[in-house]
Write the structure tokens for this entry.
Amino acid sequence: MSSRRSSRGSISEEEINELISKLQSLLPNSRRRGSSQASTTKLLKETCNYIKSLHREVDDLSDRLSDLMATMDHNSPGAEIIRSILRS
């Protein structure tokens, strides 16, 4: 990637477009857009919102797991399965 950088060390427009395209491919339900500034801004906002939703989902799953573990016998086979999953 550094071979495509200009002598100033900045990122080329081509590299930015490639990175935007890669980012877009990581988002669920992402549609093809033009390379305009408005589309890039919208894509970055969607990315931030998606990351926030993933954080909320992780927090929710963590809470649910904590609740489940609190109600289980810590020596039960189910508790051991959960511990082994968390270790992996």
User: Anything to note?
Assistant: The chain has a mean pLDDT of 83. Residues 37-71 form the longest helix (35 residues). The chain is about 70% helix and 0% strand. Residues 2-87 form a domain with the MYOD Basic-Helix-Loop-Helix Domain, subunit B fold (CATH 4.10.280).
